[in-house]
Amino acid sequence: MPTVLIIGASQGLGLEWVKYYKQHGYDVIATTRNLDLAIELKQTLTGENDKILQLDVVNEDSVSLAMNQIPEAPDITIYNAGVKGYTKSPDTKATLLNATLKAGETSSRDAGRKLAFEVNAHGFDRVIFALKDKLLAKPQATVAYISTGVAETSQNTSGGYPFYRQSKAAGESYAKEYDEDFRQVPDCTPTSRPRVFSLIPGLVNTGMGAGIDGAAEPVKRVAEMAAVIKHVKLTGDTYGVWKYDGTKNMQHDLPESVANVFNTDTKDSAAKILANVGLYQIEKNATAENQINETKFANGK
Ligand SMILES: NC(=O)c1ccc[n+]([C@@H]2O[C@H](COP(=O)([O-])OP(=O)(O)OC[C@H]3O[C@@H](n4cnc5c(N)ncnc54)[C@H](OP(=O)(O)O)[C@@H]3O)[C@@H](O)[C@H]2O)c1
Question: How confident is the model over 250-274, as a mean pLDDT?
C-alpha cells in the first residue's frame, strides 16, 4: 500500500487530506499537536497500518521523536501545518503597521512573527531535514509544501496578512532549496530523485478561509490538489509554484526551455498526463529534465 504523511491533520484541510487518501487506498500517517483533541482524526484512521503521531513542528525534539517513528519515507508527504501569526477584529485590516498582531493569547508583535516563521517556514525545514535520508532511499518520494497565493511578493498589491505572507514565502524558499539539493545528490536521477514543491490551495472553507465569500469546499479542493501532487510525482516537474487548478503562479517566469518542454500550457499538459498515467510519461519527462539540467549548466548555475 502506498503511504502518505500529513503534518497538521486534526482539522481543516489536514483532516480532509486524511479522508481523501484513506478513500484512495493509502496507509496514512497523520500528525497533530494534541492527541486528546483529535477526535475525528482518530475516528477516521482505523486501518492496521495507519498511525497518528504527536508533533509540534516548533519543537525540534518533538520533530525527531515523531520522524523516528516512521520506518521509511512516505510516498507522499504533505506539510499542511500553518498559522496566520496574528488575530484581528473583524473591522480592522491587519497590516505590518498596526498593533493588532498576536500569537494566541500573547499580545506581542515578536510572538506573532516568531510563531508564523517557526510553523510556516522553519518547522518545514525541521521535518524534511529529519526525513532526508529516508526520502533519498525512496524513488519519487514527493513532498508538497502547502503555501498560499499571498506569498508571491510580485503580486502583492494590497498589503495585509502580516508575517503570514513573509513566512510562507520563506517556506516556499525552503521547498525550492531542498528540491535543488536533492537533484544534486550523486546517483539521483530525474526519475528517482525526491521531489519537493510548493502548492497553493486558493481560498478554502476551512480554519483560515472559513466564511469568506468564494471559498471552495475542502473536499473539492483537496481532490484538485491531489491531482497536482500525482502529476508532480510522475513527471518530476517541481519548477515554479503550483496552484490547485494545475496551473502555476507566475508561469511566464519559467525559463523558456522549461516552458517549452512542458508545453507552455501546464494545465493542458497536466490533464494529458493524468489521462495517460504510465511509464511512458516518466521517460518522456526524464528526457525533458535532462534538457533543463543542460540549460542550467550552460547558464553557469
Ligand atoms: N483555508 C484557506 O483558505 C487557505 C488558503 C491558503 C493556504 N492555506 C494553508 O493551508 C493549510 C491548512 O489551512 P487550514 O485552513 O486547514 O487551517 P487550520 O484549520 O487552521 O489548520 C491548520 C493546521 O496547522 C496545524 N498546526 C498549527 N500549528 C502547528 C504546530 N506548531 N505544529 C504542528 N502543526 C501545527 C494544525 O494541526 P493540529 O492542530 O492537528 O496540530 C492544523 O491542523 C495552512 O498551511 C494554510 O496556510 C489555507
Answer: 48
Give per-residue pLDDT as tens, 234-249.
999 999 999 999 999 8
- Residue 123 forms part of a structural domain: yes
Edge-to-edge strand ranges of the sheet holding 142-146: 51-54, 27-32, 3-7, 76-79, 142-146, 195-200, 241-243, 248-249
Measured at the CA of 10, the angle between CA 56 and CA 48, to 5 degrees, comes to 100
Domain CATH number, residue 151: 3.40.50.720
Q: Is the CB of 198 under 6 A from ligand 1?
A: no
Say whether pLDDT at 22 is over 90: yes
pLDDT confidence of residue 98: 73
Cβ of 55 closer than 6 Å to ligand 1, yes or no, is yes
Q: Is the pLDDT of residue 283 over 60?
A: no
Q: What is the pLDDT of residue 85?
A: 86
Structural domain including 22 reads 3-248
Distance of CA 75 from the midpoint of ligand 1 (Å): 21
Q: Is residue 193 part of a domain?
A: yes
CA of 207 from ligand 1 middle (Å) equals: 7
Taking the centre of ligand 1 as the mean of its atom positions, its distance from the CA of residue 236, in whole angstroms, is: 26
**Looking at residues 181-190, what average pLDDT do you find?**
89
| Total tally of structural domains belonging to the chain | 1
**Whole-Å CA distances, 271 to 133, 268, 274:** 32, 5, 5
